[in-house]
Amino acid sequence: VVVGAAMVAGGVAWAIIAWRGSGPGAPPPPPRGWWETADLYQIYPRSFMDSDGDGVGDLPGITSKLEHLVDAGAGAAWLSPVFQSPMVDAGYDVSDFYSIHEEYGTMEDFEQLVSRAHELGLKILLDFVPNHASTESQYFKDSEDRVEGFEDFFVWADGLHDPENESNILPPSNWVSQFGGSAWQWSEKRGQFYLHQFSVQQADFNFRSPAVREEMLRIMRFWLDKGADGFRIDALPYLMEANPADHGGHYPDDPLSGRKEFGPNQLGYTVPFYTKDLIELYDIVYDWREFVDNYQRENGGDTRVIFTEGYSNISMTMRYYGAEGRLGAHFPFNFGLITDLTRGFGARDLVYCVLKWLTYMPRGAVANWVLGNHDNSRVTSRLRPALVDGLNALTALLPGASVTYQGEELGMRDGRVSWRQTVDVEACSRGNEETYELYSRDPARTPFHWDRGPSAGFSSNASTWLPVAPDHREVNLERQKKEPRSHFKVFQALKALRKRPTLTHGDYIVEALSDKTLVVVRLLAPLDSFTLVFNVAGSSDTVHTDWIRNLKLPATVYVASVSSKRNAGDVISPGLLELQAGEALVLQASSL
Ligand code: FRU
Ligand code: MG
Ligand code: MG
Ligand code: CA
Fold it and tell me: Which of 26, 160, 275, 411 could form a disulfide with 487 if both were Cys (CB 3.0 to 4.6 A apart)?
């Protein structure tokens, strides 16, 4: 029997991952930290629930619907930013890190949200946006005015002389913003350029300034004191840029990608060598981990967590977990299921994608599985709607935390948002009336479908900040709760399953049986095993039960995808198993 002790690998203490029972009379599995097997639910506050009829979601709306999270088996929620903001980038342009955005409510509303969540046993994580602040923030105004103590709060630089035009000043380097255009913006007031890796209104903090680093800790402490259980941390790969001191006193140009389809001010023209994934940024993340760990030690209570966001290659992503003896994020979000699968993906692609994370993850670290978020087309639209139950089953069966973007529990699809209705800054800056759909994140942000009524029960207002998707009459929570079989009911069954020791502590096998069908087996003898069999293809597939390692037959169907002809309780005997397109079955069997 391996008991749950801490192991020390390379100077880093990791919690142990797999526990094996030793037959009848085995001790119960050691408890895990709440976050290690968490069902984490992302709330997009603008689109979750509107309590006051202004067509915009708000905090009292969230509070009124927290029971839904409990119903959906969630143990924790992370909220996209709720801080004061001019809303250029839907709240990711924070103008006051210490107050609540007025459309969303008051500080009291926030306190009520947290206390109600805690009553219900839910953790609440806030979205911490350290890379940048709104140009309307006091920090920026003071920095632009060179107020003492704030001069270096942002990344300021002199322009370059234009050899072709004496009266022109060029930006300090060729850096391109994530939303297109130069990443440098001229400030008339200060007579210098400031850096913005995102929109012009999101100025990058200067993390080489100790004052900035201290301020970040102050912000985190403020919200932890208010009861937040931790943070999702935004846009980390962009935290630091090359230091001019290492480059003869100026900002070095990023190398050119050589890709002719991009013009000099388009994302993709350069390779973000000096602007992304800088090795120095990780120490700051490790400092934040130390900070939240110390906070917990000093204040008691459960672990305060940090989950980091970044789209980077696998080794730079894994580095967020920790390195060289220091701990980092409790986990960095795993975006593989978003970035590495295309519409026509097969079982082998999916297995490869899953194993990639598990293979690169440091020993004993905690995995996590993300199907979607507010920045990407919804999983049903991105891949295929028929796969919703199977994909939810996959993220439920895999070891570690399972992350759900609001609406995925219903199989919600992208909404339709016309050019006139489009508000996303990325769509508006990178696209035009013809091309905006390539860039717009609005379709994944339309309001949640509570019921079939006007505005889907999201708002009493017929006009909402983004249009409600017309398919809310078919796809909505109220209906899925009533129907004998629905995506939501499958989701609930899966979440209940995740509480069992076999899923929280068991071993796993992830394998493709064919081009179309894969299995995830979870084992913890002497307890029952659970096996997901999932045909991801658009046509049927026949596999043989003998191909599934460690499955003792007969097995029973624990839960089946909505369109499956099989029902919970059906018996699966040894032999050929035909699976319809998209069919997913979770089988329960006694251990070998
Ligand atoms: C994810 C994100 C976006 C936002 C950006 C900058 O990359 O959360 O929604 O536009 O970070 O804060
Ligand atoms: Mg409102
Ligand atoms: Mg600019
Ligand atoms: Ca930065």
Answer: 411
